[in-house]
TrEMBL record:
Enzyme class: transferase
Official protein name in the record: dTMP kinase
Example GO BP: dTTP biosynthetic process
Keyword Lipid metabolism among UniProt keywords: no
Keywords: ATP-binding, Kinase, Nucleotide biosynthesis, Nucleotide-binding, Transferase
InterPro entries reported for this sequence: P-loop_NTPase, Thymidylate_kin-like_dom, Thymidylate_kin_CS, Thymidylate_kinase
One cellular-component annotation, GO: cytosol
């Protein structure tokens, strides 16, 4: 938990904050919600402690939007069966079920920040739904659909 957050603190300090100050949109493929899902929900670490350490590491910086590509665990395993697996992917189905439940619990607690997409759909439909959610947020931030299109 501390190693993940030490790395995250450096990322926030060296990359994210400076880009946000310059008006750049920042996209991360993992952030604090992943730590909560994996370390808190799946590994059973105290959720309040995980949130507290995340908050220290990020200085309270929270995403405007979190996209969750949700798929039943068994189907996700079937899709990845012939690929190399990292240490998280080598965990059993029960572990991944707890991760998924953690993500869905987080999404339900803050629905205005989360976009949950059924990842059993086609790649094209998933891409369309992701772009729809992202572009809607960008219009809110930038104030113009024209700027988003550019």
């Amino acid at each position: 938990l501390l190693l993940f957050n030490a790395s995250r603190a450096q990322l926030v300090r060296d990359v994210i904050e400076s880009n946000l100050k310059n008006g750049t949109v920042v996209i991360c493929d993992r952030y604090t919600d992943s730590t909560v899902a994996y370390q808190g929900y799946a590994r059973g670490l105290d959720l309040e402690e995980v949130h507290r350490i995340n908050n220290i590491a990020t200085g309270g910086l929270c995403p405007d939007l979190t996209v969750l590509l949700d798929i039943p665990v068994e189907e996700g395993f079937a899709r990845k069966k012939n690929r190399a697996q990292d240490r998280f992917e080598q965990e059993d189905i029960a572990f991944h079920q707890r991760v998924r439940e953690g993500y869905l619990t987080l999404a339900a607690a803050e629905p205005e920040r989360w976009l949950v997409i059924d990842a059993r759909q086609s790649r094209g439909e998933i891409a369309r739904l992701v772009w729809s959610g992202v572009s809607r947020l960008l219009v809110e931030i930038l104030g113009s659909e024209k700027q988003v299109a550019e």
